[in-house]
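Encode chain A's predicted structure.
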Amino acid sequence: MQKPPNFIQLLIFSLILIILLILVQVGVISIVMEKLGLSQQSIILILFCSLFGSLVNLPLFTVHSKGKGTAPLPAPKILFSSLQTYTGKIIIAINVGGALIPIFISFYLLNTYDIQVSHILVGIGVVTLVSYFFSRPVQGIGIGIPIFVAPFTAAIIAILLETDHVAPLAYIVGTLGILLGADILRLPSVRQMSTSVAAIGGAGTFDGIFLTGVFAVLLT
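Encoded structure for chain A:
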């Protein structure tokens, strides 16, 4: 969970975009598409939407910093930046690119491939625990996690559990596991931070989620 992107995060975002373009040129993304069973046009559209969607946060509710209780937002609105005044209350939002789109893709893969429910649950559980264990609250930044932890864990679990649909399972357990472990379960830690907005799947863990979806598939 992270605050919306500042200048440094936007710079990182730009670098990731450049790297993505290079990957597309050398055909790495084509390998990911084939493993997930998606067309080239579809996966490129999804990846670009995920990147640009990472700049959009949809508010869910508010929490009191260093206090108890939650309160609903008076009126939903889209948050694009960190130009929110800190008043002791923290807006909990969900990021479009870092949370909603990966969730949508995961459910699409679940409906497309015949993967055992037990494998999905075990995989998500393991990645969730690993993501929670390695994630840490960083004052002024949010919840941080090493970007290669979740992809490697998801890939290993998928290889051990599945034989027919390894790549889809790796993507599903990797993205959902890191969202649960590094974001949802870390919500209590957000109360200790002086920030106006914290987004599930936001800029910090977005790097991990984005790379999880790509690298987990490549590693399988």
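Residues 7-218 form one domain.
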